[in-house]
TrEMBL record:
The keyword Isomerase applies. This is Mannose-6-phosphate isomerase, type 1. GO terms for biological process: carbohydrate metabolic process. Its EC number is 5.3.1.8. Binds 1 zinc ion per subunit.
C-alpha cells in the first residue's frame, strides 16, 4: 500500500508504478481490508477462507505480518490494548506490535516513548512546537534489532528504514502528530491509552516471547530439518535470495518476502539457489518463524 512516508524499497517487488511509494507490504493477514491470498497445489484462496476451514471455531488469525518501508516520518502515534478497547467502547483486538529491523539508513531514528519527566499535556501542543520530537526518547536503529512496542507506547520513525512487523490482528492507530500532513488526529483516544513509555529492544537470533505472539529466527546453518516450534501452525518468512521451501512432499519457490503457512508441526527445510537478486533489498539468510 502506498503511504505518504513510503520509502521505495518495496516498489519493485510489489509491482508498484503509480504515485507515491509503497509503505506497507502485508505478508499475512485474514482481515478483509488486507486480502492476502494463499496458494498450494489446489489453487489460490484468501487466507481468511483457509483459516476458517481449518479452524472453524477460532476467532481468526491472531496476528498480522507486514514489511514497512519508510523514507519520510511516520506519524507519532500509539495503539490501544485489549482493555483500552473495552474502556473506549470499541470492538476487536488491541494492537501490540514488534519490529525486526531489516535495514536502516544513516539518517534513520526511532522515537519511542515520552522522555521521563515529560507531562502528557505536551502531546496536545506538538503542532505549535518548533522541535516536537525533543520530548521523546531517540534511538538509532540497527539491523537485526527487535523492538517491542507495547500498547500505549508513543512512537514514530524518521529517515530510511525497512522492518518486518508482527502485530495483533487489529487496525487501530491513534495519531498524535502528523508532521504537517493535515490528516485527522486522535488525541483524546491516544492520551486515554497511554501506558508504559519504555520499549524492549533485543537482537536476533534471540527468540521473541509475548502473550500475543512469538518469533523464532532460524539462521542459515540450520535451514534443513526445521521442526516448527508450534504444533498447531507457524508462518515462515524468507528475506534471502531465491530458495526452495520443502515441506510434506511439496516444494514452493521462495522469493524475498514470501511467507509459508505450515500446519501440524510438519518438518520442513529451505534450500538456497545459486544466483543474485536485482531488487536492491537486503538479503538475510535467516528464516523467520511466527506463531502464537
Amino acid at each position: 500500500m502506498p503511504k505518504p512516508w513510503g520509502g521505495g524499497h518495496l516498489d519493485q517487488i510489489a509491482g508498484h508504478t503509480g504515485e507515491g511509494h509503497i509503505g506497507e507490504y502485508v505478508l499475512f493477514s485474514d482481515m478483509r481490508q488486507f486480502p492476502v491470498m494463499a496458494e498450494n497445489s489446489r489453487g489460490r484462496r484468501l487466507v481468511a477462507d483457509v483459516w476458517r476451514d481449518l479452524f472453524p471455531g477460532s476467532a481468526g488469525v491472531p496476528f498480522m505480518l507486514k514489511v514497512l518501508s519508510t523514507a519520510e516520518p511516520i506519524s507519532l502515534q500509539n495503539h490501544p490494548s485489549d482493555q483500552d478497547l473495552q474502556k473506549l467502547g470499541l470492538t476487536g483486538n488491541g494492537k501490540f506490535e514488534c519490529w525486526t529491523i531489516l535495514d536502516a539508513g544513516a539518517d534513520a531514528r526511532m522515537y519511542l516513548g515520552l522522555k521521563q519527566g515529560e507531562d502528557i499535556s505536551v502531546l496536545r501542543t506538538l503542532d505549535a512546537d518548533a522541535q516536537p520530537m525533543r520530548h521523546f526518547n531517540e534511538y538509532v536503529p540497527q539491523r537485526g534489532e527487535i523492538v517491542e512496542l507495547f500498547p500505549g507506547l508513543v512512537h514514530s520513525t524518521v529517515g530510511r528504514l525497512l522492518f518486518y512487523e508482527i502485530q495483533q490482528t487489529s487496525d487501530y492507530t491513534f495519531r498524535i502528530y502528523d508532521f504537517g500532513r493535515g490528516r485527522d488526529l486522535h488525541l483524546d483516544a491516544a492520551i486515554e491509552c497511554l501506558h508504559e513509555q519504555t520499549p524492549a529492544i533485543s537482537k536476533v537470533p534471540e527468540a521473541l516471547e509475548t502473550s500475543a505472539f512469538k518469533l523464532r529466527y532460524h539462521p542459515a546453518e540450520n535451514l534443513s530439518g526445521i521442526k516448527p516450534v508450534n504444533d498447531t501452525f507457524s508462518v515462515f518468512t524468507w528475506f534471502g535470495c531465491a530458495a526452495e521451501f520443502i515441506c510434506d512432499g511439496q516444494s514452493f519457490s521462495l522469493a524475498w518476502g514470501d511467507s509459508v503457512l505450515v500446519f501440524g508441526g510438519i518438518q520442513c527445510s529451505v534450500e538456497k539457489k545459486e544466483g543474485t537478486a536485482d531488487h536492491g533489498l537486503p538479503l538475510i539468510d535467516m528464516l523467520f518463524e511466527a506463531y502464537a
